[in-house]
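Support case: user asked for a sample of complex input and structure output to validate their parser. Sending the pair below.
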Amino acid sequence: MKKISLRRMAKNQRGTITAVKVAGDLGRRIRDMGLVTGTVITVQGRAPLNDPVALRIRGNTLTLRNNEADFIEVEVEN
Amino acid sequence: MNKITMALAGNPNAGKTTLFNALTGARQHVGNYPGVTVERKEGEYQRGDFNAVVVDLPGTYSLTTYSEEEVVARDFLANEKPAVVINIVDAANLERNLYLTCQLLELKIPLVVALNMMDVASDRGMEIDAEKLSAFLGVPVLPIVARSGQGLDELMAAAQEMVEGRLSPPDPAKVRISYGDDIDQTLLTMTRLIRDQDLLKGKYPSRWIAVKIIENDEALIKEVNEDSLDLAAQLLHEAEIVAAHLMKTFDTYPEAVIADHRYGFIKGILNRGIITHRYDENRLYTSDRIDKVLTNRFAGPLIMLAVLFSIYQITFSFSALPVSGVEAVFGWVAGLVEANLGDGPLKSMLVSGVIGGVGGVLGFVPLIMLMFFCIAILEDSGYLARVAFMMDRIFRMFGLHGSSVMAFIVSGGIAGGCAVPGVMATRTLRSPKERMATLLTVPFMNCGAKVPILALLIGAFFAQHQAFYMFGFTILSWIVALVAAKLLRLTVLRGEPTPFVMELPPYRFPTFNGLMIHTWERTWQYIKKAGTVILAISILLWAMMTYPGLSPEKEAVFVQERARIITLYEADSEAGNKLLQEVDNRQGGAALRNSIAGRIGVAMEKVTWLSGFEWRTNIALLGGFAAKEVIISTLGTAYSMGETDPEDAGSLGDRLARDSAWSPLVAMSALLFMAFYAPCFVTVVCIAREAGSWNWALFSIVYSTAIAFILSTGVYQVGRMLGF
């Protein structure tokens, strides 16, 4: 197990969020949408230009930009 | 029984609008793109002796003050204290939807939870125990399917019981969410302080205020400050202590701890046998399989281009017939007035001002209806969110949002669109600054009315490379619009990009009813609000181009000339008629020069010589504010060519090519100016409405004219220096 930033996750990789390190509007928005510590996410795919990224979370799909994904730390299997 | 107020609250895409329509039968839009409902919508519900005014609150994910929608929803709940709130939650997305429910519970408002889309959930192999959920939340939970109306009677019965006091509002003890020892301790202290001093006179529950202060909710802190500066300082101090402690010991923010605990609370409930999954939770559904193709790296953009292009085709080709129908009706009415009224200012005003103005507004109606219909399909099906997803990387570079692409295409991103529906298409954008930047830059695109002007001048001066120049101007319009957007976002619309975090809702088949309601509602808004203002401006422009008219002496000269021609030629001879027409045209030109617009045009030469324009061009540009088509007909009149049909302006082109005031360089300068100066006033009126203020509309006129002037003057002056 190792911790990486959400941006670095590969397509179809699965991981568990360990921290969302941002306050303010962006942090609030990220958490409101259900991206909180302990949530299991899978990278579903990326937009044609690699950004934004689409995530599978609890059977639904969320998208966010890479520079927003930077604040999210994920624990993944090696 | 008196009418009570009932509010609908819920996440975007949870089916709130569908429920609203089902309850009230009101005409309202059903969307699939996150957050279509921004305005407050009301309708009436009646069932037996239960009468309610139903208020459809904007869809929100939370009750913080992240967006205007959330502020609206929160203020409504706190200030108007509805007798009951129906919280609609998406059964297939329960965990995230209950996040809002938790916050509603903390507000201690009388709540009934409507568990919507039970059909979708069961298709996905989920079983939800509504009764058990109800027991844990301490409020009634009723399963419904809003689309088919299933379960609505039971839901309303529960709402009625809640209103009549047979069911009690949420039990605070039951829903007290623990936020961990540190925060809970601080909350206790703060709650005591708040209660002792009766802060905000019981508008909100004390503990809720404390939570919000720890969450650093700016709107609430401001409210508290206004009530009691002293107490506010004390409370903020407490919040700071706990925030510093959390940062030191756990390297985290209080907001994060609070959100984590809320989700933890939800998970704790759901894990107690409320949901059972028959399949793997993350298995792919049909919708996801469609997405594999539609957002594929290679196929995705191609399909998107094809979809956008076909919308464009459908909007502009299918509307051609109804538009010409509307024009024909107005032409016929104008003909009637022409034939039955004596010559004079009244007739001229009716024909050019009133009929021209109203016809201009209504002429757009078929176009707007078709465009909204197409957008409604994209929106309600969920595809628009995918377009935003795919295009965001590019548009973000210019300070815009992925969803801006739609407005640009419709406005003329493919030459020949129209900025009016383009401006209205920005409604699908949820980020305020990005939306405003889109609104202010889409009029730069090559709309259908600019195309004939481009064709005229390019045909007259750059005939050898016609296609190249036409294409060049389409590309240039994109560049100017995107660069202008970037400049706006760096200056007047400065600010951090709005977070993109967005749902890709599952694809759904739009309902025919929803599409119709959606299309008609938006079209009607356009007719109603644009109609009145546009009529007034149209009459004003007509007056400017008509008055004061020719002096009696000058008019006498033309009368004499006509009399001379009549004596020289036989009645109705071809040569004689031609000469008479020439006199009419020259008189029209002279009258125009003497009109207020003409005088302004002459006065403007003092500035416009910098770009190489003489007064005739200036008048045409003034006229172009009414509608860009008017540029050509006004140029025709100003060059004594009579009324010129924009579709057939060849002879005007020849005339300009021969005129000493024109040259390829002047033509280039004029092309640039006409492509980018102030939007036509129909667009301006729409901008004012969409932006919510006339200041932005005026700003749009001024800044785009400035950009056009700088571009054309730059090209003209540099060109002169280089000896063109």
